[in-house]
Amino acid sequence: MSRPVRRSQALSPFGIGALVDFPGPVSLVHAGLDAWPFEPTNPDHREFKVEDEPRLARRLGVDFFVQPPDFRQVDSAAGVNAVNIGLKLPFLRFPLWHSCPRCGRMAEARYHDRQSPFCDGPIGSGGQKGTSHKRRKMVQVRFIAACRDGHMRDFPWVEWLGLDRDEWGRGRSDRWLRLLSTGSASAAGIVVVAERQDVSGIVEIKRRSLSGALGLDLGVKCDSQNPALGIGHGGDDDGEACGTPLQAVLRGASNLYFADVRSAIYVPEVIDATIPQDVLDLLDDHALKQDLLAGALASDTGQLTKRSAGLVLKKRRPESQVDPAVLADAVNKHILIEILTQDRYTATALMQQAQIAIDGTLSEQVVASVVAASSFHDWAIMASVLVEPLNKWVQARKNNESDSDGTIDASEGTFRSEEYAAFNRDGQEGSPKVNLLVRSYPIAEYEDVVRTRFSRVALLDKLRETRAFVGFSRLLAAPVIDTDKRWGLISRQKMNWLPAVVVRGEGIFLVFDAGHLDVWDKQHGEFHRQRLLSVNRNLHEQAHRRQVHVVDTTPKFVMLHTFAHALINQLTFDCGYGSSSLRERIYCSDEDPRMHGVLIYTAAGDAEGTMGGLVQMGMPGLLERTVARAIDRARWCSTDPICIESPGQGPNNCNLAACHACSLLPETSCEQQNRLLDRATLVGTLDRPDTGFFSF
């Protein structure tokens, strides 16, 4: 059994814990990280590691990421030097219960069984009752059960009949279950029957239809089975009961699996306008940087020498014309910070000194004393060049600690502010251009529709996005699960890595004019806040069901989000990309630093990125037409006036004037699952057209 999938599909929709249909046909569940074909100590597997996205790694509490291995067959040209041949992602059989398509008799398989069970009778009804039939392969049943804590198991057939599992489980030849259909299209037409063989023949013990089984509560508590980890009746052991009510679902139900994928746009760590561009680009190469660090650690003084830098260049970049002395100076100024801060004792001492300082920063004298007392005491003489980057590190760590409350979502504002700052700085200003290239035109070169509403338009000719799989949920989309529960669903033990894919592309970043935005909010914000009361009420009701915390959405956020949807829908006509190929990233915060921008970007799994064309649409003379058309299209929906006057529609009734005919996007494009949208924030309502951001 095999099926090719793209790397990105191995995270979503076929991530760990997902049910996937394979040829056979057979349904398999993606196994946990313990079974992945990756060994951190195996040098051949190093090519799958992603170690140059420290922002996302810190946020998710891991050291690095691992890309799903690509499948390789034996290459005769490579000969004995071929590595990583035949690596496959692991899958386990699920559901385990099977039924015979001829007589309905049921049997329970095991997770690792490669073949389905076979049945040869006896027939349970009709004139041939009690006789055998032609041997047939059983098929997996359609019904399974899941709980809101992410566990999944077979439908509790035995418990549904009120029988003892020990007496009716696997391996009993004198008794069995039978799944029959009475012809009705509803669940009431499906009947499970318990039968036993005795001296008089086949005796029916009990029967019950599945009427009522597809409700919110099966009447059976979850026992923490997790097929992805082999935990359950088909594996080595059973989990401790979590006690959450089980809910029956169909095997292919859309609410059975929601992958939780977190992403980050690459932001260069070293930004210094005093360093030549070719040196900055070298420092953005992770493998070369690791060799430079190793050279510094191996030196007697703890500093990278010109000779060591030259040897690394000769090994990694023999064609480079960079002066080794200039490279060594840049490394000693910036990259050695990583060594200091990765040392637990030194990092703790630096944070303690920053906390007791009146201004919360490190002075040159403090840095010198802390470094002198560490195992890197030779670097104390470099305190003057270390103090600035160390203070940046201290501030970033303070932000992460103050924003964090134990959930992944806690530090989203701080996390995105780093990207927001990078997009507001042109790539030529002391920043590497390998993975992020930002340029812009003066806003005065754009026509009024853009110039009066936006303060900056940045064109991202290059961007790199890392998408990491952190877990999944069932029945309800993406509830926040604490760290221990999250790891308990995807691995038997906590790892120092998570699955991820790296994709490259391009984008357009638009920053709304703060003054215009404030005037709009002052004049019409209260009108839109009243409109959003029902949305916020529905939002909190859903949050209560999911047992998560949310804050009220604001007119500013809804306006930015709706504009992003309108722009994406228009760009599909203007630049040739399908709407599912474009993504949004919203930057909105009234806290310091303020953010009010949107990034529309496209990213593909190919190493060279996408086909291009999106950035061109952000140039003067083209963007104005796209924005104007997007706003004009937003003024009228084919379902108006029903849509524009709607008190609530869409997912969980968390939209106002936004429907499939005017505003919604494919799920892969929207960060908010197509919620928190309202065209009125852009163009106003029928009776108040002046309240829109683009119409006042």
The residue ranges in which pLDDT falls below 50 over 5 or more consecutive positions are 402-410
What kind of sheet is the major sheet?
8 strands, mixed
User: How does the overall form come out from the CA principal axes?
Assistant: globular
What average pLDDT do the residues reach? Answer: 86
How many whole angstroms does the radius of gyration measure? 30 Å
Question: Percent helix among the residues?
Answer: 25-40%
The first-to-last residue Cα distance is: 61 Å
Count of beta strands: 22
Q: What proportion of the residues form beta strands (DSSP E)?
A: 15-25%
Structural class: alpha+beta
Protein name: DUF1998 domain-containing protein
Organism: Burkholderia contaminans
InterPro entries: DrmB, MZB
